Amino acid sequence: MSKPLYVFDMDETLFDADCAVLWNEFLVEQGIAMQPDFLDQDKRLMTLYAEGKMDMEDYLEFSIAPLTHVPTERVQQWVEQCIDEKILSRLFPQAQTLLADLKRDDIQTIIISASVSFLVEAIAKRLGIDVAMGIDLELKQNSFTSKIKGIATYREGKVAKLAQWLSAQDNSYTEIHFYTDSINDRPLCEFADYAYLVNPCPALKALGEKQGWKQLKWSL
């Protein structure tokens, strides 16, 4: 009997936006991130990410800086506010329908994202997805630091984190289906049995055409 597992990247796959960018915009709008060029720096780093050239440690050092002296509980309150005000409206209808169909059929779904886990887990919960993997951060005096805890869910790290999770499950899945938009996810596309490319970046689109991966055009 077939027992599939559906795995989703989050940013620009389920959503018509990068949720981490929306979060950083929220931090500026709320007066939490005070650095004058904060969003310009974010844009520069996201360009590197799109090219598959971003250093995750550099990105985290930049993006977590406004939160390093804020209690984690307060950060979580801001995350919920950001989800309500900026993120949920950007969910692709096609993603919403697919997730509802999978839930109806009792098929396990997972989000695995290179965004920080406090953002990924909160968004996944709103989507009814109970397994969410993002980049875990070490805490210091009940505040987030930019130091990565465990496996970073970025590039090959997504495969390692998913494999770690799979090894701890009682259920063995017969096939893995993976949805993404980014060339950074090439390792997980190759690890999965089926890869689906949602509005893929040029590099992933070209690779997908060679590999015969299904390409999807989703829109709001």
TrEMBL record:
Keyword Zinc: no
InterPro entries the record matches: HAD-like_SerB, HAD-like_sf, HAD_hydro_SerB1, HAD_sf
Species annotation: Vibrio mediterranei
Protein name in the entry: HAD family hydrolase
Lineage: Bacteria, Pseudomonadati, Pseudomonadota, Gammaproteobacteria, Vibrionales
Claim: Metal-binding is one of the keywords in the record: yes
Keywords of this entry: Hydrolase, Magnesium, Metal-binding
GO terms assigned for molecular function: hydrolase activity; metal ion binding
Matches recorded under Pfam families: HAD (PF12710)
Domain of life, per lineage: Bacteria
